[in-house]
Specification:
Structural class: alpha/beta
Shape: globular
Mean pLDDT: 94
Largest sheet: 6 strands, parallel
Strand content: 15-25%
Low-confidence stretches: none
Radius of gyration: 21 Å
Distance between the termini: 18 Å
Length: about 375
Amino acid sequence: MLRVHSGQHYTYQYATPRVETDFRMSRGAMRELGRRSPFLAGAIGCRVPAAAQLVHTYNGVPTTLKPFVVSCESFLPRIWNEGLPAKLKPLFQRILASDHCRAIVPMSEHAATLVRLRNAESPHVARIAGKVAVIYPSVEKVDDGRTGPALGSGPVTLTFVGRHFGRKGGIACLYLSDRLERLGIRHEMHIVSIYESGPHIWTDTGEEYYRAQLREPRSSVSFHSRLSSTDLAALLRRSHFALLPTIDETFGLSVLDAMALGCVPLATGIRALPELVPSPALLLRVETDALGRWRHLPASRERRCTADYRLLMDDVQHSLAEQAAATIGALLDTPNLHAELAEAGLARIRARHHPVGQAQVWSGLYHRCIDMLAN
């Protein structure tokens, strides 16, 4: 029986198989060493059982001599092109091109594009690109045959989930509630977040911008700092919409979880999100660059703290809220379409993100990797 070792953090649950088929998966601590020192960025520290034949990491190269597979949400090597750590990039590119690395597995076509671009100037680009194979993440479970509550039978229920309240669109959600109130659309909105925001996050302006809006009383908004996975699933099951009006998100795992529970997503059409959302009608528009990122995203903390950027941020939050309100209003006029979109989301989950189906895909990849060793 093939034995694979991988991580135990919750992101590994999405990026690796959730179900064992004809392989056995052990799990243990896998640490991003760049959190300890920038000179170790791109490396994953781990202790691998002797019986493991293959190691499966996420977003980094493992510190082991065993052959490995690496999943990623964006680019690899995961080293920012700044300062001395960037000098390690060629070393990691050589490792990714070597026989030590058996496969590079982006979580989306968007991530695959980033991997190819990241290594375009490397002398090893052909070998690295030849190892790229997209495998989409799997969800924990799928509510087969259930498509959520009928729209129009009561207040519209909306749920936002995101640790980074600012980056993921928390302000747009608050503005959406204001707009729905003005339109006379009864609703209840749930914000599930630890409300982390501020210029230490690469998208955010000064923290007071977010705190000021959180202090505003809104009778239709309920705030939750933490919910258990059971309570969150129950909330999403009774929600008509899951909101992710983000200005930067490499993937969007919360969208998958919502769709798997029969909830219709409303998300910004950036990066990998158009690959996930079941209809373009559910995508909110912002100005994007050639890679699908919000084109006004500034590089420096100083720029994000300016009044000009704060006004630009506020404008885009209002725009996202306005678009979301228009989509909700249109679906209230055609509630059957809302049910069809919920079913389309479930169909996409079954086809590309089902835990059993994706485990079978991973099994095929793992066995091909081991066959390479035999040959």
